[in-house]
Design a protein that fits this description.
Layout lengths: L2 E5 L9 E10 L2 E11 L5 H5 L7 H6 L6 H16 L5 H27 L27 H5 L1 H19 L8 E2 L2 E2 L5 H32 L13 E3 L2 E3 L8 E3 L2 E3 L15 E4 L36 E4 L8 H8 L8 H25 L17 E8 L2 E9 L12 E7 L1 H5 L11 H6 L11 H10 L3 H4 L20
Antiparallel strand pairs: 1-2, 2-3, 4-5, 6-9, 7-8, 10-11, 12-13, 13-14
Bound molecules: NI-FE active center.
């Protein structure tokens, strides 16, 4: 008989995600036969931004999330600059890259040690580590190596944030990202300090982070063939290497269907559509491109087939996985496979790649160069800002008002749309009934104990979802059903 297990909330992610899995025995194997990912809160930043000065958008959207505010600042300034057809100076580009790179390093270290490793390692006694799901854990004493690096990782994560703040000004929500450039002019002592932090972090990545992921991958080698998902990978690309409208990037823009590395294809933003068939949005807004998208919520009680506040973004009609593995795959840096362990490995190798590139960028930075190009918001313009957050493809779309239609002295925001990485990865089913990537990755997974489905947590955590980025505001009448939770572990 099928068992329905609800994990609500999924812990050790940012924000609130509920997952419901149906577990049944098929061919003698107890496995997941259905899965639903639900974002249980509504974000609403798109509505908050309407009517405001476009220059406020980077500051406001950075508040979408405290973990990846830099990427929201980057996507927002890129959207505004694309609306104006403006390119920025080399030093501004490099400073943005250095701040975003710091955020990637911080976020990747945070994810492996603090959010994911406790799915495999026996935690210390007492709160907040206990109780925990004691299933298939600590397969080998060698894993104590990872446990030993837990506290140093917390320190390294803090140091990456401090490094970020040297140029960014503060973390979270660094104020340095403005349309037209950057607010900080670097001094040689700032560059020296940044360099010292960076070398220290590169050493941690090389000596601890990558070896720890390799160790986990060898002990839990079966997880190199668990949690594949749809096999479609999407990267908007990030870390511009020149100052043109279509720059080369450290991590390229592109996508593949069915994990076919030989056919990385160019991304066309008009192929992005958001489905709302299973989301609490009005059906009249189904299949919209975000350039002219809208945010029209409905009463959840009136749409009983729906189960999420996340829309379901699709590329050319297909669910797409995004994140470090997608970026490294599209770039040709990592194509070993698509699985739980491949996601962890690609994330660690990406941290190394980005950190090493940052050394070069730091050397290119000048102390007297321009960091700001005068920016004037155009009337009646559409801007698209595609970049990458640590968790994957992030897009902001802005439409400004036409002259005379706003009480502001200049143009206002007429429409603003955001699609975050977690909207791609944790999306619900689409209009064709195709599941989102995390849902798809769960199907067919063997489950040892339906009351403690650790396999489900391991798959979800490998995507590093952030529901804060995807959805925000409490739904007071939310269902109170909690059958199983993740045992109180942080
Ligand atoms: Ni809240 Fe974020 C990243 C973005 S994920 S962490 O990385 O955008 O949806």
């Amino acid at each position: 008989m099928a068992i329905i297990t609800i994990v609500d909330p999924v812990t050790r992610i940012e924000g609130h995600l509920k997952v419901q899995v149906t577990i049944d025995t098929v061919g003698g194997v107890q496995q997941v036969v259905d899965a639903q990912c639900s974002g249980t809160q509504f974000r609403g930043f798109e509505l908050i931004l309407q009517g405001r000065d476009p220059l406020d958008a980077p500051y406001l959207t950075e508040r979408i999330c405290g973990v990846c505010p830099v990427s929201h600042g980057m996507a927002s300034v890129k959207a505004l600059e694309s609306a104006a057809g403006l390119t920025i100076s080399a030093d501004a580009r490099i400073l943005r890259n250095l701040v975003l790179g710091s955020n990637f390093i911080s976020s990747h270290i945070l994810h492996f040690y603090i959010l994911a490793s406790l799915d495999y390692i026996t935690p210390p006694p007492g709160a907040p580590w206990n109780p925990y799901w004691d299933v298939d854990i600590m397969r080998d004493p060698s894993l104590l190596q990872i446990a030993g690096n837990f506290v140093p990782a917390v320190t390294k994560r803090r140091e990456a944030q401090e490094m970020l703040a040297i140029f960014g000004g503060r973390m979270p929500s660094p104020p340095a990202f403005v349309a037209g450039g950057f607010t900080t002019k670097p001094s040689s002592s700032m560059i020296d300090s940044f360099s010292s932090y960076l070398n220290n972090l590169i050493s941690f990545i090389n000596v601890s982070y990558i070896p720890d992921v390799q160790l986990l991958q060898s002990v839990y080698s079966d997880y190199s063939s668990i949690g594949k998902g749809p096999g479609n990978l999407l990267s908007y690309g990030v870390f511009d290497l020149d100052d043109t409208v279509s720059p080369d990037r450290l991590l390229n823009r592109g996508f593949v269907f069915d994990s076919m590395p030989a056919s990385v294809q160019p991304v066309s933003a008009d192929k992005i559509k958001e489905h709302v068939t299973y989301s609490w949005y009005d059906d009249s807004t189904n299949n919209q491109n975000p350039a002219n998208g809208s945010t029209v919520i409905v009463d959840p009680a009136s749409k009983t087939d729906a189960y999420s506040w996340l829309k379901a973004p699709r590329y050319h009609g297909k669910p797409m996985e995004c994140g470090p593995l997608a970026r490294m795959w599209v770039n040709g840096d990592y194509r070993n496979g698509i699985s739980v362990m491949d996601r962890h490995m690609a994330r660690a190798l990406e941290a190394q790649k980005v950190a090493n590139a940052m050394i070069g960028w730091l050397g290119e930075l000048t102390t007297g160069g321009d960091v700001y190009t005068t920016y004037n918001t155009p009337y009646g313009a559409l801007g698209t800002g595609l970049t990458e957050a640590p968790r994957g493809a992030l897009g902001h779309w802005v439409q400004t008002t036409v002259d005379g239609s706003s009480p502001l002295l200049g143009p206002a925001i007429e429409n603003y749309q955001v699609i975050t990485p977690t909207c791609w990865n944790a999306s619900p089913k689409d209009a064709r009934g195709n599941r989102g990537p995390i849902e798809r990755a769960l199907i067919g997974t063997e489950i040892l104990d339906p009351a403690q489905p650790i396999e489900v947590l391991r798959i979800i955590h490998s995507f590093d979802p952030c529901l804060s980025c995807a959805v925000h505001v409490m739904r007071p009448e939310g269902e109170p059903v909690v059958i199983v939770n993740a045992g109180g572990r942080p």
